[in-house]
Design brief:
Blueprint lengths: L19 H7 L1 H21 L7 H8 L7 H7 L7 H15 L16 H37 L4 E6 L2 E7 H20 L15 H8 L10 H12 L13 H27 L7 E2 L19 H24 L10 H29 L1 E2 L1 H9 L7 H12 L18 H13 L6 H12 L7 H7 L9 H11 L20 H12 L6
Helix pairs in contact: 1-2, 2-3, 2-6, 2-9, 3-5, 6-7, 6-12, 7-10, 7-18, 10-11, 10-12, 11-12, 14-15, 15-16
């Protein structure tokens, strides 16, 4: 083997996934280890079935030590056959021959009746299985924290925004519950996937396997190649399949879609946090950590880098999932010419991005700082106009009962509906300076409806945002109840209910946040 000098790819330009854990789960050595695991497991299956000399599996297992192989050398030599399995087999057989001290012919157990795609497809599914386990653990930690936020802030008022504009009163608890729901649904979908084994032989007919089972070392084994495939699946912890899937790539595209759904849901939360943590909004802040969020030029800045990195993953993932679909649609013949090869890096990068984003998300959700006073301040910016929908529903029928005076005239206008008259109130209010709109709206509304039909007390009830949250609390509870497996775990410390903190302290913290003193 020739040794090649290489610096390797450690993620310098992909900080969201640059971590030892992600590298251990998805790096080149992990891919190599997965391929060797498949070959060793197959040798064990063949020996158990009496199809290769006894003792062969042990020799192959010893030879399947990743430390015995030069990953960089294999990568370069893969150009000769178009995939890394081919040079690996040459080295593996050499290792097996060297380790076969008893001369039992253990090399006969290496790759017998398989093809390169069998090994690499199975290896990538095995690699994905380990990554998915880690990913689901990270997501459970994040969703548990979000469930705690949803419960603690069920009655924390904030403003909903529609097409960038203030729309209706909202609760931060529902916002957190919606984040939770998106992530939990994506996690459940990912966890439900079956990652299948691949054993089809050269053209997906298992022809070589048929010859193997017909003339094995132990006569009368009574096994078929499909039986061997099922045994391999069991050894690897992968799903069995009714048939080889060399050119039916639903297993790959389904995995890619599920990973992209995870980054979609994470990206949604990150986008919200990025906006809500702006100094002029100051409703949220990321958890602080030494050295994180710093600027190379501006000492006062504390950038929301957790959300930035999560969003970077969310923006990259859809194109990678699309690449898997593009490849799947071009799997021509019984073994494709290039489409299969284009899957590998796309799938691995999806795994890396999802793992990296989930790790950032766990920390973000677990330490998210919430400022209810700032939320109420922003809610109050629109004043009672924010309740115009509630006013319309309650007051328009009253205005439809003649004779009532028009808002701007002492004469009755029976031709105008109650809704039209209330719209006139809103239109007139919007002509006033912003600082005067709250008082203007109240005054015009009061003039539009006689007090015997709408008392001052009832009017104030209609203009209280806490009275127009609809089913927000119930919706939050239903979302959490729909995914009980993702609500388990203690609520994150530091995310106490707003009732536990004074409004003054909250305003002070929010003010510090705006001035860069406590932003994460």
């Amino acid at each position: 083997m020739t040794s090649f000098e290489t610096d390797g790819d450690v993620g310098l330009l992909s900080p969201v996934s640059a971590s030892p854990r992600v590298a251990a789960l998805t790096g080149d050595r992990a891919v190599l280890a997965a391929m060797l695991t498949v070959e060793a497991a197959w040798a064990a299956v063949l020996e158990d079935a009496g199809l290769v000399p006894a003792g062969s599996a042990g020799v192959v297992a010893a030879a399947a030590d990743v430390q015995r192989y030069d990953v960089a050398d294999l990568a370069v030599r893969a150009q000769g056959g178009g995939n890394p399995v081919i040079p690996l087999l040459a080295d593996l057989r050499e290792q097996v021959r060297d380790l076969d001290a008893a001369g039992i012919g253990a090399v006969q157990a290496v790759h017998t009746s398989l093809t390169s795609q069998d090994v690499l497809d199975s290896a990538l599914m095995l690699l994905a299985a380990g990554a998915v386990r880690e990913l689901l653990a990270e997501l459970r930690a994040a969703t548990s924290a979000l469930a705690g936020l949803a419960e603690a802030h069920a009655h924390t008022l904030c403003v909903a925004r529609s097409l960038t504009q203030h729309s209706l009163p909202y609760s931060f608890g529902l916002r957190a519950a919606q984040w939770f729901g998106g992530l939990a649904a994506a996690a459940r979908r990912l966890g439900a996937l079956e990652l299948p084994v691949q054993t089809g032989g050269a053209a997906g007919t298992l022809a070589a396997g048929t010859l193997l089972t017909a003339g094995g070392w132990t006569a009368g084994a009574g096994l078929t190649p499909l039986d061997l495939a099922d045994r391999l699946a069991a050894r690897l912890g992968l799903a069995t399949v009714p048939a080889p899937w060399h050119t039916n790539r639903l297993a790959v595209t389904s995995l890619g879609d599920a990973l992209a759904a995870v980054t979609d849901a994470a990206g949604k939360m990150a986008a919200d946090v990025l906006f809500l943590s702006r100094p002029e909004v100051a409703e949220l802040a990321e958890p602080r950590a030494a050295g994180r969020g710093v600027s190379s030029a501006m000492p006062q800045k504390q950038n929301p880098v957790l959300s930035v990195l999560i969003r970077s993953a969310a923006l990259q993932s859809p194109a990678l999932a699309a690449q898997l679909h593009l490849a799947a649609a071009n799997f021509n013949d019984e073994r494709p010419d290039g489409a299969w090869h284009s899957e590998w890096s796309a799938l691995r990068q999806l795994l890396r991005l999802a793992l990296g984003a989930a790790a950032q998300l766990r920390e973000l959700a677990g330490g998210l700082q919430v400022f209810p006073a700032a939320m109420r301040r922003n809610l109050d910016l629109a004043g009672p106009l924010l309740l115009s929908e509630a006013v319309n529903a309650a007051v328009a029928p009253l205005l439809d009962k003649p004779p009532l005076l028009d808002v701007n005239s002492a004469e009755a206008e029976p031709g105008r509906t109650g809704k039209q008259r209330l719209q006139a109130v809103v239109d007139a209010t919007l002509q006033a300076p912003a600082v005067e709109q709250a008082a203007t709206y109240r005054a015009l509304l009061r003039a539009a409806v006689p007090e015997d039909l709408l008392t001052d007390t009832r009017l104030e009830e209609l203009l209280d945002p806490a009275n127009y949250l609809g089913q927000a609390a119930d919706i939050s509870r239903r979302i959490l109840a729909a995914y009980p497996e993702y609500t388990a775990g203690p609520a994150s410390p530091g995310n106490a209910s707003p009732e536990d903190a004074s409004s003054e302290d909250d305003r002070a913290t929010a003010h510090q946040l705006q001035n860069g003193a406590s932003r994460g």
